[in-house]
Amino acid sequence: MNELCAWWTRPITEPALEATVAHAWLTHIHPFEDGNGRMARLLANLALTQAGYPPFLIRSEPDRGQYYDALAASDDGDILPLYDLVVKILRRTVRTMSSPDYVRDIVRDRLLTSRSAEWSIWCNLPQQFAVALTQALRPYGWTLQVQGYPDISSFSLLAQRDSDGNSWFVKLIDPNGHTKWLLWYGFNSDLLTEMLSNPSGYPSVFISVRDSDPSAVHPYKQVHEEGMLCEILFRPFEPALVRWGGWAYKAEDMTISDAADILAKELVRPERNRR
């Protein structure tokens, strides 16, 4: 703790980096029986606000999985994932706060009732998919770990095609306990938008694979493999729309259960997991 305090008295030109290091360092020391994470976030926000930056606000659902993974990586000596998450969250906060109606939206539960209702109805769909995918993976000995669901602010950012609303959905874990695949939320791809003539207004779910390159900044890389299911769109009161990889315009409506079954079979194939 004395070393941390001594380091913090030295000037740092990058407030986001200072906040990241302070956060990672305190959680690594773990000096308290309880509340180490809360104290680390408080320390990080103190560094940010002293430099005139917005606060670093972790949202329990959309950020939780990526946050815990980044903390684990920082404990192993790699601070880049945590720094990347801090910067992403700060950008998202700035975009939200720069809205001309920000104060009014805060007073009125952040967004108009119609958007809130859309979000509430839509959130049931990825939850149903997570249950169906868990069941589809079980015969293969694979398991699923839910990382979170977009909150209403992230949902609205993705409707505006803003990547600051991206967040993790689920991890797929093989029978040996290794995380192989990540499903995450983003805005509709250009190909899917062309097929629909316009953005749907609802997030898409994309598939990424664990990157085996030890020098990679991001732990996962998106897959675009020809003929592989690579994007799923959930729309209230409509079937799930799935799109396959490659440049061909191939998409199909199907039930949530069918989409889960197809994806499970695709991702557990041995040749896809010898990477």
Question: Topology of this structure?
Answer:
Layout lengths: L1 H7 L6 H15 L6 H15 L13 H12 L4 H18 L4 H6 L5 H25 L5 E4 L5 H8 L7 E7 L5 E8 L3 H7 L7 E7 L9 E3 L6 E5 L6 E5 L6 E4 L1 H12 L8
Helix pairs in contact: 2-3, 2-5, 4-5, 7-10
Describe this structure in words.
- The chain has about 280 residues and is an alpha+beta fold.
- The protein folds into two domains: about 1-95, Fido-like domain (Fic-like fold, Orthogonal Bundle); about 115-270, no CATH class.
- It contains ten helices and eight strands.
- It has helices spanning about 1-10, 15-30, 35-50, 65-75, 80-95, 100-105, 115-135, 150-160, 190-195, 255-265, and strands at about 145, 165-175, 180-185, 205-210, 220, 230-235, 240-245, 250-255.
- Strands 1, 2, 3, 4, 5, 6, 7 and 8 form an eight-stranded antiparallel β-sheet that branches.
- The longest helix is centred in the middle third of the chain and has 25 residues, at about 115-135.
Features:
single chain, 275 residues, alpha+beta, Fic-like fold, 2 domains, eight-stranded antiparallel β-sheet, 10 helices
Rg, Cα atoms, Å: 20 Å
Shape: globular
Please identify the structural class as seen in this structure. Answer: alpha+beta
Strand content: 15-25%
Major sheet description: 8 strands, antiparallel
Quaternary structure of the protein:
single chain
Number of helices: 10
Low-pLDDT runs = none
Strand runs, count: 8
Distance between the termini: 41 Å
Query: Any idea how many domains?
Result: 2
Order of H and E elements:
HHHHHHHEHEEHEEEEEH
Give the % helix. Answer: 40-55%
Kindly state the mean pLDDT as a whole number? 87
